[in-house]
Amino acid sequence: MAEIEKIEIGMIVGPTASGKTAVSIALARRLNAEIISADSIQIYKGLDIGSAKPTVEEQAGIPHHLLDTIEIDAPKFSVAEYQKMAGECIADVHGRGKFPLVVGGTGLYVNALTYPLAFTAVASDPLLRQELTGLETASPGKLYEMLRALDPNSADRLHPNDIKRIIRALEVVKTTGNTIGEHGGDFSNEAKAEIPYNPQIAGLAMPREMLYARIEERVDAMMRLGLREEAEGIFKSGYSLDLPALQGLGYKQLFQYFRGECTIAQAVEAIKRETRRFAKRQITWFKRDPRIQWFDVTQYEGSEQLAENISIAWGKGSPVK
RNA sequence: GCCUCGGUAGCUCAGUUGGUAGAGCAAGGGACUGAAAAUCCCUGUGUCGGUGGUUCAAGUCCACUCUGAGGCA
């Protein structure tokens, strides 16, 4: 039986501020790799300081893909587009004889590459979404009732208050006549569907206290680097502040300051607090993924040593001298 | 030195006529199928400053004591 040859890829995941950037550079050097970002905010142009996007110097000559790729006001960018673009990047990098190294903290994007999720089946439908939102406003609980009738499995899975996901599930079943579960694989991959990659996933972990201290330091550093000015430029540029891109940490809180709703000190505090909560959600997400091999960064001298151990774990032990 | 008001969760504070404590914020846990840095769900974590006393029973009443703030000398 002719099996399609899978592309071998490496992945580095972990919460924000866990040191993914530095390790990925060290690892890319060892493995002759190019880096493909799995970060839902760094992919936007102009969101640089606040997204902790690696600078040109930090990229250190390693080619990075899917940074600065789309406009802040690009219509309907989503995980489906990401899945497609990342797939093309991986094929391209592999085709040029280099190792694709996916690095990022957006769990859904990581899963879009490592589970056979059939996103492409149903596009989002803004008009239908608007209509459904109107229905829910007029009579709260209505949408969950509808979902219960049309797609009981999804209704079981979702909480009645999780309107966003309820709308998406309704969108799929109303547009196609099939439920969301009938469209493809899921995270548990009970369908045993195949993905075109053979991923090895390394997770970066550290004690919670240490991670929070790093977040604190990093937010202060962002402010020194000019996060306020970056956000102010966007604030004044006329973008709708409801854009998905502008829900990113740092921007949202500074917009409140620009509107006079809080002091700059309160905005910075809020950025730190929300970033901690975000990191916690990322940890929850990655923790349940049994395929991730965890590396406690405190067990290693620095990113070079950590990169060496990851490459050994991936069966690529002998380091490039 | 005297007087007054405080000391209860990580923080700010509630706490009825005595019945071994509860709000907000912070925090912790979880979910996640085309917005995912989004969205949603769950959870009180406590030597009630200390020691004695009264009482069947003390965060609550009494005495002493430590400690903070203010006032008068």
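qc> The first strand of chain A starts at residue 7 and ends at 13.
qc> done
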